[in-house]
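== Protein entry: sequence and backbone fold ==
=== Local backbone shapes as whole numbers ===
==== Amino acids and backbone structure tokens ====
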Amino acid sequence: MEERDWSSLPSDVLAVILERLRWSSHPSFALTCRHWRSAVSPFYPAWITPLLLSTAHVGVTNIRYYSPYYHKNFEVGGEEGDHALSRARGAKICCAAGRHLALDSPSAVLDVELVTGNINKVPHIYRGNFDFVIYDDRAYRIFGIDAVLPLKIGYANWNSDDGVWEDWTLMELGINGPRLLPSPVTNPVIHCGLIYLLNDQGGLVMYDPCKHDEGFEILDNPTSFGFKHYNSYLVESDQHELMAVLLGRRGTLNHVIKLNEKKMEWEKVESLQGRTLFTGTLTSMVKKTKFKWMEDRVFLPVFYKWPDTIHADLISRDDELAFVPKKSSSFDTGNPNVVNHNNGACCEKCVDVWSYKLGQQEEPRENWGAERVDYGDPKS
């Protein structure tokens, strides 16, 4: 009989082996030999700088993510009815927290479990859409905010015993509540258990869930940013700082500032202390990065110049998340393993996201280098 070695294992056997390995083991598996590499299905670990952008098409709730590392968009959902999101037509993305996405449709607020695609509805009461919806994944509570003067807020709690959202608890309607014109491009932010809304000039309103009947309170300070700007985005950092990003026209970065909560004044930030700030979307965030090239940088998507889009499913395996391209989706098969785009480095010619090095006077960069990913630490 012809002698065979490990490199000659049948493809169906290799597929069974791969199903029992963590995602982070697949790149090493693919480097064994060409035959083993051919058995590895393309996937993109979701922990590598995913940024939720917006719905992809008007009237169809395709959820779109962007990764600066891969320089690719990943769309989840679709019109084909193969995902629960196809039933959420016309819904508006409001916020994301953990593996939950909050949408607002004309008839209900929708809590979407991103991995399973399950949708749990919280029917509206009295009126149509909220102006803002924010999901608190620590308290399992959804808040709906009406910004039409005066400011009003309601909340709904998750009933874990029945697996449903309870009815809304709304404020008593009145005409004497606080009046503030919120910034139209930024979402409310949960900071230290309180909800903050930002206005265009830098003022804040605050809501304490423990004092629901009192509603929003307009803070005496800060009264303004103290810096010129065109757009502003509010964000809580991973170090529990309340921060704002001030942008000029055409996406130029003016300043990153944070709230000095002792003085209640905005102060300019000179360094992100090795962290990365993503903004310019409804999901601004500050997070620690293990990539040197991304440290102390602010990233802004260029919405008129999109990179390649991959239609994918968001799959969970052993608490690891990955975008797995659908069979009809095109992807790069020229590399040894598409999971390691350009051998772990983003192509310097293909980037359409502006980045700024904080603390340095420079024009926005559209080209940068990258580092090889350590797939053994997917939760970094």
Notes: The CA atoms of residues 43 and 339 lie 5 Å apart. DSSP finds three helices and 27 strands in the chain. The radius of gyration is 23 Å.
